[in-house]
Every structure is written in structure tokens, then in C-alpha cells.
Amino acid sequence: MSNSATRIPVIIGVGEFNDRPDNPDDGLDSAGLMAEALRRADMDAGGGCLADLDLLHVVPQISWDIDVPTALAAQTGLDPATIQEAPIASGDSPVRLLNDAANAIGDGSAKIVAITGGEALRSAARRSGGGGALFTKSLEMATDLRRKYGLVNPGEIYPLYENALRPALGQSLAEGQAESALIWSKMSQIAEHAEGAWLKKPLSPDAIAEVSGSNRPIAFPYS
Q1: What pairs with residue 215 in β-bridges?
Q2: DSSP, residue by residue, 19-68
Q3: What is the torsional sign of CA 141, 63, 36, 12?
Q4: pLDDT digits (tens, 9 = 90+) for 105-114
Q5: pTM for the complete prediction?
Q6: Separation CA 188–CA 203 (nearest Å)
Q7: Among 87, 34, 82, which Cα is nearest to 60's?
Q8: Residue 203 and residue 183: Cα distance in Å, rounded?
Q9: What pLDDT digit, counting tens, does each position of 10-61 carry?
Q10: Which residues lie closer than 8 Å to 81 by C-beta, 6 or more apart?
């Protein structure tokens, strides 16, 4: 390919893995989930791509206190020099890394790039006796300002966005809650038949919006 030719990034393989062992104590850690997802993506692409990988982007995980790049290199046989973990775990990390991968292919600095991420929350909670060690990495990555106000875990941060977006859109609380419930209801309907979904029960918007014994408040306005 000449330098003047246009390089168009194309997604050639996708893999996901839902770890539900009969014995929860046998569950994989976050690196194990990522390694299995990579193997499945490689198979989806026809096989052999991981062996020729130029770069692996990793979305940081917050459920296990482990060095994911080192663990991934050991489990996949990839050169540790090809594995790059994003600096922070955030909701936009996956799409940002996808953009970085496309740019690397587009400018010719890479030919094959993979992106992976995973959270083993159930296994981490099981092994810590109920979740005491959960979000250790999240706490480590939190700024002093976030720690000061107790804004460490996702459930403590995203309500800020929700409560700021609602008035910015000119919505009342009821309108904002109804719109969110509708979005999550549609997601639950898709998840019912999605192999990689953890929760597969379709829920109506009313069931999602109504606070109840099985749908307790978490952080305003979320249940």
C-alpha cells in the first residue's frame, strides 16, 4: 500500500464472555474475563489476529486489585510492550480507545489493534467476603477532590450528570425519570436475548421507575 493510499479502519471481530460458573468461587478475575473475550474476538475474526497484534488497548477495571496488563500478557502470550491501559476508568473509555485504534490504523502506525475490558464484580465480592475489597482501583484513581466529597464509585458520580442534564433539557423530575425508565426498559428488552448480558429479564418502564422493596433507592434519582 502506498503512503498516499487511504487506510480505512474496519472492525473484523467481536467477542464477549459472561462468566457464570456453578460455583461462584471459581469465577474469573477481570483479566481472565478480558483474555477470554479476546480469544472469542480472535475466533470471530477468523483466527490468528492476536498473534499479529500491534497494539492492545485496555479499559481499566475497578473490581480487582491486580495489574491487568501483566496478567493479560501471561494469559494470552502477547508482548507486554503492545499492551496499553488507559489512565482512568470512565464511561467513555471504550469509545475513546476505539477512536485511538482507528487513528492508529488510519495513520499507518498499526495494522491490527484490539480493545478489551471487563469487570468481575460478583467474583470479587465473593472472595472479599461481601465486597469489602471492591472498587479498590477506583479509590486509587480518584482525585483528592472526589474523595473529599465521597465521589468514588460510578453510582456516586453518575447522579451528578443525571441531575444536571434534566434541568438543562427543561425537564421536570417526573419527565426525566420517565425518559430514563423508557431507555432502560428498551435496554432490558435487548438484553433478554443477548448472550453477553448479565441480567436477562425484560422490564417495563413503570417497573424501572417505581421504587419498591426490590428496586430500592441507590443515589438520587437512581433506584
Answers
A1: 212
A2: ---SSGGG---HHHHHHHHHHHHHHHTTS-TGGG-SEEEE---SSS-S-H
A3: negative
A4: 999 999 999 9
A5: 0.82
A6: 6
A7: 87
A8: 11
A9: 999 999 998 888 877 788 999 999 999 999 999 999 999 999 999 999 998 8
A10: none
